[in-house]
Amino acid sequence: MRILIAAAGSRGDVAPYTGLGAGLREAGHDVTLATTDAFAPLVREAGLGFRSLPSRPQTYGGVQGRRALMRTAAAFVTELGHGFADAMAPDTDLLLLSTTTAPLGRHVAEAMDIPTIGAYLQPTAPTGDFPPNVMGTRSLGRLGNRIAGRLALRMADRVYAEAVTGLRRRLDLPPLGPSEVRRRQERANSPVLHGFSTALVPRPSDWRRGLDVVGTWWPYVAPDRRLSAEVEDFLAAGPRPVFIGFGSMAAGHGERLSELAVQALRRAGLRGILQAGHAGLAAAANDVLTIGDVPHALLFPRVAAVVHHAGAGTAAAALRAGAPSIPVPVAADQPFWAARLAATGAATEPIPFTSLTAERLAGALGRVVRQQTYARAAAVAARHMATEDGVGAVLKALG
Fold first, then answer.
1. Rounded to the nearest 10 degrees, how much is the dihedral formed by the CA atoms of 118, 120, 122, 126?
2. Is 27 within a domain?
3. Residue 352: what pLDDT?
4. To 5 degrees, how large is the angle CA 315–CA 374–CA 249?
5. What is the largest CA-CA distance in the chain?
6. Has this prediction a pTM greater than 0.85?
7. Does the CA dihedral 225-230-232-234 come out positive or negative?
8. Is the pLDDT of residue 68 over 90?
């Protein structure tokens, strides 16, 4: 089967599909991943075909208010809509669509008469179990959560409205707004597979048929990939260090975060590994190492704890490694994942990015490293995640 996976956004929105795609390829399918040019090396390293989608705005990974984030997202999906049809090939047998690309890909699929399956990294369908993942973490009660979930979907529809209008016009399809298409998908119980662990989010009992939680899709890591000699030497030189990184978040805050991180580590009496990321974290000291891109799957099992922005992928990677976390959510769905992580017992209570200080971080580091309850909870979650087979569930859905 010729499968096109379409994904867009930050690295955390794309990397999981390299692992999913590699698994489908190993099962005999011809797999191509359509995403932005920045991630072409990740796609090709996984042995997948690559097709280009328009790049995201440079401000997408910064620290923004909700209104500014909505404007940025609307601009992004409008550009994405212009390029989406170009990424299609007439011989495609199936489209696997991410949360970001599904509202566009469904129209392309309609025009080309291609079946689709949603492959989401976030729970977006309304439920009484929790509020929408982009609306904070405070429960509004079961009815209130469901109402808020519907409101969040309508807000997303507004973000995509202009892009959908232009795309349907280009594809010679009759006018149809995002809300109508979404409701049509819901009535048909169209399949959506969610690539996260039930250790973090059990499948809500009030979800419609066709919505399933299948387990995490892990970013592809080459079988012969190893940590560098520099990292191995640092790990061997003393007690397990703490990993500190913010991924594609916190651009422009590197100097402050670096100083804050070093101060917190020194107060807690711990060694640290800083991952530069988009923030540009950096420190030069015998007890602190600065690194670039390193697979979490290789490093996290070797650290004492993980301080991170609570992106879905990083949160899951820490749990998989049995490493306790200190979540510092920055924006978007990160407060949701931070709260979910804390609810497992494998993480401290989240420290909002705007409230982060050296004192608060040092206190959290002291608790998470020295109180074994966090590590034990992480180990329990890791064992649960080991029983899940996210790629196998997609293969089963393909029939």
1. 10
2. yes
3. 94
4. 25
5. 65
6. yes
7. negative
8. no
